[in-house]
Amino acid sequence: MNKQDLSGLIMADPRYSEACRSCMNCGVCTAICPASGYYDYDPRVIVNLVRESDEETLTDMLSSDLIWYCGQCMSCKPRCPRGNIPGVLIQILRAVSINTGLFVHSALGRQQLAIKRSIGHNILETGYCVHPTRVDPETHPEQGPVWAWMSNNADQVYGRFDKGYDKAGPGLLRKISPEALGDLDRIFEVTGCKKLWNTIETESEKHI
Ligand code: SF4
Ligand code: SF4
Questions:
Q1: Domain range holding 116?
Q2: Any residues with Cβ below 6 Å from ligand 2, and which?
Q3: Which end of the chain has fewer CB within 10 Å, C or N?
Q4: Pocket lining: 74 vs ligand 1, CB cutoff 6 Å
């Protein structure tokens, strides 16, 4: 990757013009940001670093945990007096980090593979981010013996919570129709999510 590419890729994203206009360094985004209370994370600094377009700094940032600390709460969106959206800028930085393979250099970046294979696949295969039948007791021993028992008796247990469980129609954890799952699949395709997922798989494989 040459020195011009990262800044160019960030600014070429169609979201950029809305996410990053001009910054007067007021720090309101940082003051409201919940992630800044937990991590060494400062959206004001990130906006500035992106605007400075220093390729070495951008390479370091996209290779680090920093861009994965944001919780995407979008509290920063209505607060910025210049109309920036630091949370959307983070979305762009994450996409560029994945597309350039830089994400594999950080621990939180590498977790994208597990997130893709768990939550991502859950959404496309069940329609839910998390579904109890997908939380396998063997891979989640921290859930304890009660969870293992519930998993082995799922049909009896979940049907007691709601009669609509795993059935067509309304109800908690109802079965999502094949048509709706097909729509979800198409959304993930046309929005570029599946392409991003493939890149996560191939770049992670190279790193191993
Ligand atoms: S979207 Fe991210 S940067 Fe914005 S306030 Fe929420 S955690 Fe902070
Ligand atoms: S709130 Fe807006 S103008 Fe203020 S530091 Fe954050 S991005 Fe810059």
A1: 110-207
A2: 23-29, 44, 47, 80-82, 84, 86
A3: C
A4: yes
Q: 93 and 121, same structural domain?
A: no
* Same domain as 137, residue 51: no
Number of structural domains found in the chain: 2
Q: What is the sign, positive or negative, of the torsion defined by CA atoms of 48, 51, 54, 57?
A: positive
The answer for residues whose C-beta is within 8 angstroms of residue 151's C-beta and 6 or more apart is 132, 133, 135, 136, 137
Tell me which DSSP letter residue 53 carries.
Answer: T
Mean per-residue pLDDT, 28-45: 97
CATH at 63: 1.10.1060.10
Statement to judge: residues 70 and 116 lie in one domain: no
The separation between the first and the last C-alpha atoms of the chain, rounded to the nearest angstrom, is 20
Binning pLDDT at 50, 70 and 90, where does residue 2 land? Answer: very low
Final residue before a domain boundary, out of 105, 124, 157 = 105
Q: Is 23 in the pocket of ligand 1 (CB under 6 A)?
A: no
Q: What's the confidence (pLDDT) of residue 155? A: 78
In the numeric block, the tokens 């593979």 are attached to: 113
Ligand 2 centroid to 84 CA: how many Å?
7
Where among 105, 139, 166 does a domain terminate?
105
